[in-house]
Design brief:
Four Helix Bundle (Hemerythrin (Met), subunit A)
């Protein structure tokens, strides 16, 4: 099991680095799909098969089709690259170093606390992840769920209006 964790970690880190280093946006989108598949592997390792399938269907499927469609519609490869000045590069490197130091600090000083929740592992295996997620979405987090659905609906309408405009 530990070997799978390292394999999925390597795939996720490698594909994430390739997403930000590729010059072609379509190639970056394909590496992002690979990263999503690695994350779904993590979900399977955590016995969250429903989330793994939703990760693949929603993100690697629907969202990435939308991203690739936008890349093709806008023809991003023909857009001229904007040169960055020294200040932008310096700020980017500084923020990257700060985040890297925080990660190292957490690895060195972080404690291995087990997460606690209202459901134990045995209860989750008995009831099932899908039922627990459904109960939370439609009881405790109903308002958040409805706001997210309205936001997605507005995004779909905006994408439709944006696609109808002549470029």
């Amino acid at each position: 099991m530990e070997a799978l964790f390292y394999i999925f970690s390597f795939i996720a880190i490698f594909s994430a680095l390739m997403v930000i280093s590729m010059k072609n946006p379509l190639t970056s989108a394909l590496y992002l799909i690979l990263c999503f598949f690695a994350f779904s592997g993590f979900y399977v390792m955590l016995d969250m098969q429903f989330l793994a399938v939703m990760q693949i269907l929603v993100y690697a499927g629907a969202i990435m089709v939308l991203v690739v469609l936008v890349i093709m519609i806008l023809n991003i490869s023909k857009i001229k690259r904007v040169e960055t000045d020294f200040h932008q590069k310096f700020i980017g490197i500084l923020i990257s170093l700060i985040i890297f130091v925080e990660i190292i600090f957490y690895i060195i000083n972080g404690s291995q606390k087990k997460s606690t929740g209202i459901f134990t592992g045995a209860v989750i295996k008995k009831i099932g992840n899908t039922q627990i997620i459904g109960e939370f979405l439609f009881t405790k987090y109903t308002l958040s769920f409805e706001i997210a659905s309205v936001l997605l609906f507005v995004a779909i309408i905006g994408a439709y209006i944006f696609a109808k405009k002549k470029f």
